[in-house]
Specification:
Shape: globular
Oligomer: single chain
Order of helices and strands: EHEEEEE
Distance between the termini: 38 Å
Number of helices: 1
Amino acid sequence: MIRAVIRGMPIDTPVQEILQDLDELNIHAEECHTMTNKRNDTPMPLFLVTLKKTDDNKEIFNLTEIYSLKIEVEALKKELGPAQCHRC
């Protein structure tokens, strides 16, 4: 599975429109979600896209525009190690 994060789009962008636009570009996403802040559960201008690992879908990392908006696409960074302790 490929998990990519799209930056640079407004928070209120409908997820279905993103999926349709990616399909038109021959990138077949399985899921798309608006990412939320862990502390206060507010939406962020980041969209998490899950795709199958194919050569066509790897092209998502070369995208620079969707809907005439400049975007950045990067791989999802996994958190390393345990959560930080705030008791000390």
